[in-house]
Write a structure and sequence with these properties.
By secondary structure, the chain is α+β, with helices and mostly antiparallel strands. It is 19% helix and 37% strand.
Length: 152
Amino acid sequence: MTLRQVAIKALPKMRVLSLRKTIDSYRAQGPVWGQVMAFVSEQRLGVMAPCFSMYHDMGYKEKDVDVEFCVPVRDDVAVPAPFKIHELEAVAKTASIVHNGPYETLPETYNELYGWIAQNKATPCGPGREVYVKMEPADPSANVTEIYVPIA
């Protein structure tokens, strides 16, 4: 197994269109992302950066996962519930790692990241993010996902 590089990074403030839901499990994100991206397309919202999931639970959960599906957007426009457009505050310090490959192998990367956090005596202190830098449905081995965990 190749160990991935963990980096300390700040996250800028950003405006996002979001939909927050409690889903059955991490694997149940696909249909919700379909709903979010269809809405973005219908509304012709200007997407400014890769979309991401923000996990509001502290730590891993087997079920009933609190996820905010986020798409960085240019304009602050009125949108109907359950969608909303709002500003995410900047995050001064995160532990970050890049995952290359299918989403099914993300747990291995999370284990490395949380191992690094523990080893470096840091404390997770806010919602983690999975930024979907490159999504390749036809070839999941080509996916690139950046994971960010705010730390203190």
